[in-house]
Amino acid sequence: MTSEETPLLSAQNDVVAKREDVYRHFSPGRKKAIVAMVSGCGLIPLFVTGTFTPSIPQIARDLDSTGEIVSLAVSLSAFAASLGGLIGASYSKFYGYRPMYLCSLPVLVIGSIGVAAAQNIPSLLFWRFFQALGASPGLVIGAGVIGDIFKLEERGRAMSVFFAACLLGPALAPIAGGSATFYYSWRAMQGLLGILGSIEFTVMYLFFPETSQPGARGIDKLLAHGGAKPHPGFRLINPLRPLLLLRSPNLFLISLITSASLMSVFALLVPLAYTVGVRYQISNDALVGVCFLPAGLGNILGAPIIGRISDNTVIRWRRKRGGVWYPEDRLRAALIPFAILVPLPLLVFGLVNKFVDGTLGLVLCLICLFVNGLGVEMAFGPCAAYLVDVMHSRSSESLAANGGLRSVLMALSIAAILPMINTFGIAVTNALCALVVWIAFCLLCSIIRYGEQMRGWADVGFSTIEDN
Questions:
Q1: Could you tell me which residues come within 8 angstroms of residue 57 by beta carbon, excluding any fewer than 6 positions away?
Q2: For residue 80, with 0-12 CB atoms within 10 Å meaning exposed, 13-18 middle and 19 or more buried, which class applies?
Q3: What is the distance between the alpha carbons of residues 378 and 153, in angstroms, rounded to a whole number?
């Protein structure tokens, strides 16, 4: 009996040891430096969005347009972000993460300069597209980098640190954008984004290593099979290929669920210059920018909390199952946020904004923004970590597919928010958004309950505990 079991145990130990060696490739200090660098790049896409939104009224006046028309630039940038994320994920899977950072950041710089120099709406939309296209890979492939250098039991916390740093964007960008708009011009802020992109490019070029796991890149596999020269030229890759992952009901439903949580953010923040600025007679664009701060602070506070809860949930439920790993257990950490913390502030904000005047109304609205920001981060974090868990070898692609569908849905919803508020009012609009979040909660419950069966409906190469 012993002679039969010993080789099996030895083989299992070899697999575990090999997996541990992969994650020991970088020292803890080097991992922290890598997280800092990718977090800087992940911050930029949210800064691109956050600095633009408080400037919408001034841009509309400057370009002789309306807030509804200028808001189309936000929708267009959401679409460009989805395309940029898909391109970044597809090419990083083949060439690695470092080349994608070095190729995308210059596009951001050029796009930012173009936005700053725009003299009309078509020009603004054109350059805004390229600005978002160049910025967006940082958020998608940054999460892929985290997945490749941190093991399963540490990944939730590492991802939370990454998202907490990235979500400084919603906290600081509106203040920066509002201040620049009020004291200088919205064009100055867009030019500053170009400078920020140049600095990020220099840092990544000098210090960022390739973090893909050994033999995982497409080019490595091609060279291993003798299918390419030592220095193969550029290969055209279909950027829409990651979308095929959405044929899995698990990944498709997670995209819908995360879209619902982020829709609540845009429902509150996109019209904030009007729902708070105009409603409570705040004429200073810098002060309007400060009103965005509670949502960002909620994001920052929620990230480390949910990271610890997320990892502990995985560990606790794995222990309950006798050591068996059930990926959907991580999603349990997002149940309370989706049920309470995300939708209820939407409802309260709409009612307060409609019926409560003066300082009390403003304070209550800001509290709602904080609680919603806290809830959205605590809802989104476990879902993002789940995508990395179940698609570890294709984590960037799964996140890009998720982001691609989500961005299209966000573009449509953003374009509809201001017209809906103008037609139905803030209370009805926010109530409809809260209803969508509760529907997402029901979908989340179904994934937790039936996730294993659903993964069997369409196997897109799901990871196991051995390769996590």
A1: 67, 273, 277, 285
A2: buried
A3: 18
Query: Cβ–Cβ contacts within 10 Å for residue 30, how many?
Result: 13
Look at residues 180, 149, 168, 146 and name the one whose alpha carbon lies nearest to residue 387.
146
Four-residue CA torsion sign, 137, 138, 140, 146: positive
Average pLDDT value for residue range 8-20? 52
Phi-psi group of 281: left, alpha or beta (phi > 0 → left; psi -120 to 50 → alpha; rest → beta): left
Of 136, 144, 143, 141, give the one whose Cα is nearest residue 160. 143
Per-residue buried b or exposed e for 148-165, using 16+ beta carbons within 10 Å of the residue's own CB: bbbebeebbbbbbbbbbb
**245 closest CA partner among 442, 77, 449, 90:** 90
319 Cβ partners below 8 Å, 6+ apart? none
- Give CA–CA dist 267/279, Å, rounded: 16
The token duo for 365 is: 């609205």
Tens digit of each residue's pLDDT (9 = 90 or more) over 438-456: 999 999 999 999 999 999 8
pLDDT in tens, 157-188: 788 778 777 777 776 787 788 788 888 888 99
Length of the chain, please?
A: 468
DSSP string, 356-397: --HHHHHHHHHHHHHHHHHHHHHHHHHHHHHHHHHTGGGHHH
Return d(Cα 227, Cα 250) in angstroms, integer.
Answer: 34
Measure CA 84 to chain center: 13
* Distance in angstroms (rounded) separating the CA atoms of residues 253 and 298: 25
Q: How far apart are CA 379 and CA 339, in angstroms?
A: 10
State how far the Cα of 358 lies from the Cα of 446, in Å rounded to an integer.
43
Q: ∠ CA(372), CA(409), CA(171), 5° rounding? A: 35
CB 35 within 8 A of CB 146: yes
Quick check: helix, strand or coil at residue 212?
Answer: coil
Q: Does residue 1 carry a pLDDT above 80?
A: no
Binned at pLDDT 50, 70 and 90, residue 463 comes out as confident
Residue type, 332: R
**Of 124, 291, 298, 144, whose CA–CA distance to 216 is shortest?**
144
**Tokens in use for 322?**
């006798």
Mean pLDDT of the chain: 85
Report, in this order, helix, strand and coil percent for the chain, each rounded to 5. Answer: 85, 0, 15
pTM above 0.85, yes or no: no
Whole-angstrom distance, CA of residue 426 vs CA of residue 271: 10
Give the per-residue pLDDT at 8: 42
Least confident of 42-51, 147-156, 247-256, 310-319: 147-156
Q: CA-CA distance, 344 to 422, in Å (whole number)?
A: 22
